[in-house]
Design brief:
401 residues; alpha/beta; six-stranded antiparallel β-barrel; 42% helix
């Protein structure tokens, strides 16, 4: 994929570029938003920008992609690209915007690295960028075509349900009365919300169910800042949106979907609001006659903060072979466990496929425990809410096997 000459240059410069990526991405976003303030207001998550998590995710993905090109030149990192492409497609990112990103990213690279960016170095990293960008553009085009093109659609809130003090479920029906496209359990929609300052911020929420053929359901946790700004969109939805209001939604996207036959053992592990895609998966399994063992794992602060707990238990009870394990840090009732999720005494059937959603430390801990129990790494799948910092946490600055 990467030309031989560029591979030599990228391998030699990856440590220096990787070490500077934090500064590069910071200057990149500053230049991008100075030239295109509308992108910050109407496309990028302003909360993630303020917290710096989007910069970390971008740096991690660039380093991981470049490292993969060097270590596995015959392969493309399709899993990483698919995850990014689904998020981009749900946001409505266009091919033209990749050119804008290229302009400001390479200006930041030249600004930070100075004379080290020779024409040869610039050409090599330009090749890396367009290999990644063109692959994403192709996948995103296919995803949009499968869903009839990207378009924001108005959906009316027909019911609002308080799940916990900080989680509300919104059930929605198309305002135009038209048909509703099917979704795969585990997928999400983008929701675009107008804010008081005129910005139209976008957030992605997992579909936690489909209570009727013409309805979709999202369950939104109110994000409290705890020293940082509160979540703009989640707090707006909680404070302002009631039955009869209208929201703009994208079509469903997301690659954390069940990919297993009825005889494949499954483990669905979640923590906190990560329960939302798992509830949809359980509903699907209960309705499709899944026969193999299903292990349900969830961790939360307390039963009072466990959103959708009734659905969690009810759908699992409909399966012929399901085991439910809940952990609570506080007020754990009889039949549940105290503390953090610990799989040491949880049976895991051979050949299990696992699906994880929750905070990164939780998912990393569960993944390590599952591998220790013999679950194949390739059989463990995850979803990150917000910027994907899984890659950013890896030491991907040098080529490695």
């Amino acid at each position: 994929m990467l030309s031989e000459q560029s591979a030599v240059t990228v391998r030699a410069t990856l440590p220096a570029v990787g070490a500077a990526l934090g500064t590069i991405t910071e200057r990149f976003y500053a230049g991008l938003f100075a030239a295109h303030p509308e992108l910050l207001n109407d496309l990028f998550n302003r909360g993630n920008q303020a917290a710096g998590t989007q910069r970390q995710a971008l740096a991690g993905s660039i380093a991981a992609f470049a490292t993969h090109l060097l270590d596995h030149p015959e392969q493309r990192p399709d899993a990483m690209l698919r995850r990014i492409a689904h998020k981009h497609a749900s946001l409505g990112i266009t091919p033209e915007q990749y050119g804008i990103v290229h302009k400001h990213l390479f200006a930041a690279i030249a600004d930070v690295l100075g004379d080290a960016v020779t024409p040869e170095v610039a050409a090599a990293w330009d090749e890396v960028y367009w290999l990644m960008a063109n692959a994403l553009i192709a996948v995103e085009k296919r995803l949009r075509e499968e869903r009839g093109g990207h378009a924001w659609r108005a959906w009316e809130v027909v019911e609002r349900v308080a799940e916990t003090d900080d989680v509300a479920t919104f059930r929605l029906r198309p305002a135009d009365g038209g048909p509703v496209r099917d979704f795969l359990a585990g997928q999400y929609v983008s929701v675009r919300v107008a804010l008081p300052d005129g910005a139209r911020q976008i957030r992605q929420y997992s579909l936690s169910g489909a209570p009727a053929p013409d309805l979709r359901q999202i369950s939104v946790k109110r994000v409290r800042g705890d020293g940082t700004p509160d979540g703009e969109v989640s707090n707006r939805l909680h404070a302002r949106v009631q039955a009869g209001d209208v929201l703009e939604l994208s079509e469903p996207y997301g690659d954390l979907v069940l990919d297993a036959g009825p005889d494949t053992p499954l483990l669905l592990a979640s923590a906190g609001i990560g329960v939302t895609p798992m509830t949809a998966m359980l509903a699907h399994l209960a309705g499709s006659g899944h026969r193999a063992p299903v292990t349900v794992v969830h961790g939360d602060r307390s039963p009072a903060t466990h959103a959708l707990r009734g659905d969690h238990e009810a759908y699992a009870a409909k399966l012929p072979d399901a085991a439910v394990h809940f952990w609570y840090e506080q007020d754990a009732p009889a039949g549940t466990r105290s503390g953090l999720v610990d799989l040491s005494d949880v049976p895991v059937a051979p050949g299990t496929r696992a699906y994880l959603c929750g905070p990164l430390p939780f998912m990393r801990a569960v993944r390590a425990q599952l591998i220790g129990k013999g679950v194949a790494p390739a059989g463990i799948h995850y979803e990150v809410f917000g910027p994907d910092l899984w890659l950013a946490g890896q030491t991907a600055w040098t080529s490695r096997e």
